C-alpha cells in the first residue's frame, strides 16, 4: 500500500527497546493534532457563470477582481437582431389592428345588407299572400337574404382569424423581447468576479462558461484526513492554516463539516499521485482576518480534542 503524501501527523513516539525489541507503551504520547494540505474556497463554492444565450459579446461591464452585486449586468451580448425582430413584430401588430378596423367596418355594412335582405324576404312573404308579388320574386328575395346572411357570417369568421393573428404577434413580441433580455447576463450572487474566460468580440453559446464568481461570505479550507485518524476529527475543533511558501500562520478557524463517509479519491489527486488510502473530507470555516488566496493550497493543522 502506498503512503499518504499530503497528510502529516504531528506527534512523537518515543519507544525504548528490550532485547526482543518490545516497545514501551507507557512512553507513547497521544496524538494532539493532524496536519494536512487544504485548498481555500468560498463557503458557497466557486460559481461558473454561463452565457445563457448565443451571440457575440459586446461589453464586459465588470472587471476581474471587482465586486458584482446580485442582478447587476456583467456581460452583454449583441441583441440588435432580436431588437429588430421585436420592432418588426410590433409594426405587424399595428398593421393587423388597421386590418381589424377595416374588417369591422365591412362587417357592419354586411350586417345592414343582411338585415335588409331578410326584411325584404319577410315583406314579400306577406305580399305574396295578397298576390302583391309573384312566387318568383319571393324566391329571389329568399336567395338574396340567404346570401347576405352568408356573407355576414363569413365576415365574422374572417374577423376572428384576423384578431387571433394579433395574439400570435403579441407572443412573437414577448418571445423576441425575452431573447433580447437574455442577452444581458446578470450576476447570480453578490461577490467578487474572479476571472473572465471570454473577451469582447468572442462568440458564445448558451452553454459557454464565461466567468468564475466567488460569492460574498466566509472562506473555508477544505482538506482530508486519513482513515486512521478520521474519527478523531470533530466539528468545533480549532485549526490553523500556514503558508506553504513561508511556513507562517496566515489564518485560523473552526471545523464546521466532517463527511459521513470515507472516499478513496483525494482532493489533490489531480496534483499528486493517486492514493489507495481512504480519507474523510473536512471543512474549516476561516476567520475573516485570514490572509489567504482563493484556490490556493495551504498547510492545515487541526487540533484534536483530548
UniProtKB/TrEMBL annotation:
This is HlyD family efflux transporter periplasmic adaptor subunit. It comes from Spirosoma sordidisoli. It comes from the Bacteria. GO terms for molecular function: efflux transmembrane transporter activity. One of its GO terms (cellular component) is efflux pump complex.
